[in-house]
């Protein structure tokens, strides 16, 4: 029962929380105005019909390969009123999301995904695979490694796999003192092909199979609009291309898309396809690369690059520049739970109506946070460098350095953060700057970056800053992007 209707569990918890919040708000005489907070749990809970609908209607188990019966979540039906926070959610009933995680991280990643990015996705439109069978608040987590051939399971890479099953209490406690990151990574590469084979065996009827990690964010509005323009009957495998020893593959964390035509070519009429590659995985770093090699070997189809639409970065690490600014965005990676929640609330507030472009992230998540100067921050500026040519550790052959024909301000740029900033103000191409250990770095692109660890190294702090006026002027000038240019997808191989 619990496994079949995870929504009930989540919603029961939410109902209690929601009631408490509403009660508290009522006590304070401070009930939100109608529609306010629609994208929060409390807001959604305002609609009692919605609760009743989701909690009691028997939509039933999805039948195998039964795609057409999956209702579009954004659409209310007579017996299933719509979750108000899913208002406008696109019809993704021809897409199956296949999410990969591991037992050591599942409880920290999956609940937030379920509450936010997967919230409006129908149960019949996603599967979650891991290195152990689990149930998270009723959501089935499938052991994708169950079918790996027994000899390969004897490999030391499977140490964590066997330990996890043997653990009689929670994994977190059992894993104390174990390097879970390292052991989890060793296991991970065995998953991808098995996961695809199992997803297709359970659900062979979808047009598109989108493979992501548990720290990937999917922008549904962009994805659905884009895929409606691509013929899924063709053999298509696409993502953000990376290389392994010269072999191109779609980076797994960014997410990759495989068409119906491609899945059929890989698995139809064959048995135990994934097992053919179990042995290969032992000698390789990564499962996403092996997946690409396996596709190539079985079908002779190669990966297509659709970066930056499928993207491994996130708002604070993306580069806001000409070549990416107007591009539509479908995925981001390394997204923590707090960030997933922020994006979800933002997309919900836009009613999922417009495809998201990279520039939208700048406006929503970057622009409000740029400062003239920020200490202990790495803003990733590194297009031009100023330094003392003879100082220790300066590789004067690196052509990022400017030593000659400098203005007075440029000559002094490496003396202090204040001077570095002054040089940025003077140099027209400078959007932002960074000062560290008597090197002044300047950036021509807009990037936000990360805090540095305080007290790192010998105590010399890194300081960053942005030329806010110049950035604002650039953004304004580039605001008009015209029609969306979708990635070019080859439909014949
Ligand atoms: C897997 O290993 C077999 C045997 O060594 C080899 O023939 C095959 O090309 C390998 N396949 C991949 C995808 O690495
Ligand atoms: C989203 O939909 C709600 C409810 O229909 C509406 O009030 C709101 O103005 C819409 N917002 C946007 C950004 O379209
Ligand atoms: C510096 O200026 C001189 C004279 O204008 C020019 O010949 C030289 O190429 C310049 N050097 C650099 C590195 O720009
Ligand atoms: C992404 C990036 O360029 N990071 C750099 C930030 O600055 C530090 C210190 O100069 C470099 O070590 C990083 O590579």
TrEMBL record:
<feature type="region of interest" description="Disordered">
    <location>
        <begin position="55"/>
        <end position="82"/>
    </location>
</feature>
<keyword id="KW-1133">Transmembrane helix</keyword>
<keyword id="KW-0808">Transferase</keyword>
<keyword id="KW-0735">Signal-anchor</keyword>
<feature type="domain" description="Fringe-like glycosyltransferase">
    <location>
        <begin position="191"/>
        <end position="268"/>
    </location>
</feature>
<comment type="pathway">
    <text>Protein modification; protein glycosylation.</text>
</comment>
<feature type="transmembrane region" description="Helical">
    <location>
        <begin position="7"/>
        <end position="26"/>
    </location>
</feature>
<dbReference type="GO" id="GO:0000166">
    <property type="term" value="F:nucleotide binding"/>
</dbReference>
<keyword id="KW-0472">Membrane</keyword>
<dbReference type="GO" id="GO:0016020">
    <property type="term" value="C:membrane"/>
</dbReference>
<dbReference type="Pfam" id="PF02434">
    <property type="entry name" value="Fringe"/>
</dbReference>
<keyword id="KW-0328">Glycosyltransferase</keyword>
<protein>
    <recommendedName>
        <fullName>N-acetylgalactosaminide beta-1,3-galactosyltransferase</fullName>
        <ecNumber>2.4.1.122</ecNumber>
    </recommendedName>
</protein>
<dbReference type="InterPro" id="IPR003378">
    <property type="entry name" value="Fringe-like_glycosylTrfase"/>
</dbReference>
<keyword id="KW-0812">Transmembrane</keyword>
<dbReference type="InterPro" id="IPR026050">
    <property type="entry name" value="C1GALT1/C1GALT1_chp1"/>
</dbReference>
<keyword id="KW-0547">Nucleotide-binding</keyword>
<comment type="similarity">
    <text>Belongs to the glycosyltransferase 31 family. Beta3-Gal-T subfamily.</text>
</comment>
<dbReference type="GO" id="GO:0016263">
    <property type="term" value="F:glycoprotein-N-acetylgalactosamine 3-beta-galactosyltransferase activity"/>
</dbReference>
């Amino acid at each position: 029962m619990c496994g079949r209707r995870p929504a009930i569990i989540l919603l029961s918890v939410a109902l209690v929380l929601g009631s408490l919040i509403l009660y508290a708000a009522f006590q304070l005489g401070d009930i939100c105005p109608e529609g306010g907070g629609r994208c929060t749990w409390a807001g959604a809970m305002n609609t009692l019909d919605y609760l009743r609908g989701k909690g009691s209607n028997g939509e039933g188990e999805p039948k195998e390969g039964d795609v057409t019966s999956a209702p579009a979540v954004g659409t209310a039906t007579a017996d299933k009123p719509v979750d108000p926070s899913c208002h406008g959610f696109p019809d993704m009933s021809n897409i199956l999301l296949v999410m990969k995680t591991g037992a050591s991280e599942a409880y920290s990643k999956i609940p937030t995904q379920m509450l936010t990015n997967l919230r409006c996705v129908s149960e019949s439109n996603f599967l979650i695979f891991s290195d152990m069978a689990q149930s998270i608040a009723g959501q089935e987590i499938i052991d994708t490694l169950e079918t790996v051939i027994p000899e390969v399971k004897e490999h030391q890479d499977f140490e964590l796999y066997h330990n996890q099953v043997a653990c009689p209490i929670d994994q977190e406690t059992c894993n104390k003192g174990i390097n879970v990151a390292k052991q989890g990574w060793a296991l991970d590469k065995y998953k991808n092909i098995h996961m695809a084979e199992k997803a297709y065996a359970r659900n062979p009827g979808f047009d598109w199979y989108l493979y992501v990690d548990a720290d990937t964010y999917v922008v549904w509005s962009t994805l659905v609009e884009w895929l409606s323009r691509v013929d899924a009957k063709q053999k298509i495998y696409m993502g953000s291309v990376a290389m392994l020893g010269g072999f191109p593959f779609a980076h797994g964390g960014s997410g990759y898309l495989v068409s119906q035509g491609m899945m059929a070519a890989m698995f139809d009429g064959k048995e135990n396809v994934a097992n053919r590659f179990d042995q290969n995985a032992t000698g390789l770093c990564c499962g996403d690369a092996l997946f690409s090699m396996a596709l190539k070997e079985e079908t002779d189809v190669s990966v297509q690059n659709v970066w930056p639409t499928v993207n491994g970065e996130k708002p604070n690490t993306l580069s806001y520049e000409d070549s990416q600014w107007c591009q539509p965005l479908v995925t981001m990676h390394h997204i923590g739970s707090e960030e997933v929640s922020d994006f979800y609330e933002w997309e919900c507030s836009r009613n999922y109506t417009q495809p998201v472009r990279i520039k939208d992230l700048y406006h929503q998540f970057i622009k409000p946070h740029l400062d003239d100067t920020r200490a202990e921050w790495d803003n990733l500026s590194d297009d031009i460098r100023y330094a003392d040519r003879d100082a220790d550790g300066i590789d004067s052959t690196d052509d990022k350095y400017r030593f000659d024909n400098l203005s007075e301000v440029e000559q002094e740029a490496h003396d202090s953060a204040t001077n570095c900033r002054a040089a940025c103000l003077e140099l027209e191409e400078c959007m932002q700057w960074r000062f560290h250990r008597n090197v002044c770095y300047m950036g021509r692109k807009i990037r936000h970056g990360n805090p540095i660890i305080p007290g790192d190294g010998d105590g010399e702090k890194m300081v960053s800053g942005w030329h806010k006026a110049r950035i604002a002027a650039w953004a304004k000038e580039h605001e008009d992007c015209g029609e969306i240019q979708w990635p070019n997808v080859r439909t014949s191989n």
